[in-house]
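FORM 7B: Structural annotation worksheet

SECTION A. Query
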Amino acid sequence: MTQASPSVASFAQLGIIAPLYNRLTELAYHCPTPVQAATIPAVLAGRDVLAGANTGSGKTAAFAVPLLQQLLGAKETSQDKSAAFVRCLVLVPTRELAQQVADSFLSYAAHLNGQLKIVAAFGGVSVNAQMQSLRGGADVLVATPGRLLDLLASNAIKLNRVTQLVLDEADRMLSLGFTEELAQVLQALPANKQTLLFSATFPDEVRELTASLLTDPLEYHLQSEQESTIVQRVITVNRPLKTALLAHLIKTHQWSQVLIFASAKNTCNHLAQKLSKRGISAEVFHGDKAQGARTRVLDGFKNGEISVLIATDIAARGIDIDKLPVVINFELPRSPADYLHRIGRSGRAGEAGLALTLLSHEDYHHFGVIEKKNKLKLEREQIAGFEADPDMPAAVQEQAKPQPKPAGTGKKHRKVLPPANVEFWGKKS
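SECTION B. Predicted structure
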């Protein structure tokens, strides 16, 4: 059943207990967002939930706060401290998101006097410290599937008493990349449990998989907020000029921070080198970097020490960066859903954001698919001095066969914009 979010003025109206309510007030969560207002009562009532809402809409608090309240109310005073039982399991697709979600749980629980044990478990670091943290079990375990299976294989945890299961970034968790791992985890869980699925997107093929996981769920879907907070623009450019255009945009508009997405690790490295030759210092963030290095880079970007970050899609899922002004798609994501996750790193929590996509002739068809899947229609624009050829090069036409000629190559496509209209592109920092 799909339910519209009610009009709620405060978290107190949702039945949140005083310690949690006071902490939310300290964090300046003055009034529930629509997804929080719609789902918190259902979670508190023990219902399954399927919630889709834009990035930056407050989904983590929507499940973390009511789950903490439930766990606190059902705390077992005589629990066997020698057994590594987990009560609430939160599965996430990336290491960074695991740490971020666990930190959110810990922050919301600041006034619970340590009554609930919250642990994060993810790969890329030694498993021994995580096994030590899980001695005696955990009230909340936030984990990536691979590391969770390692812990299960080592008998470091038991999942047969899990009462709540959360799939955060559920579309990714239910995708082909995690199918086998997720199936193994589900086999270790009890049949009778509350299941919550939260994500920014739920493609049709993923929605078909949710039926077997949920029982009479509250369904909530809201995608309209993103339109008012993120300005999306598409710039066409000949492929050889992409890097030069990127450098031109960064220098011209002097954005305080820019997150640039590329599709491959090597592209990230090469692009950082090319920008360096143009006087722009950039760091890279991808799966080949050691976990310690990934953490340092991400922390440096979050606190403003790093201005330009070039990343693969591991940075597109749930990473929360306050007031990030600009996201640039240097290359397109493979999945249309990942386009929304990428641009959602900007324009979070009601802040204005700008999402630019640099489109060469080779990208026209795939971006058309992205637009169709996400119900978008974006005007193709150009920057003076970096205009794309009006016709697709012969070599690209040959590669594109038997695809039809991409849309957007007509007169409207050749619109040229002034190169330094700072008001148009976003505030100068």
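SECTION C. Observations
The chain has a mean pLDDT of 84. The first strand starts at residue 49 and ends at 53.

SECTION D. Sign-off
Analyst initials: ____
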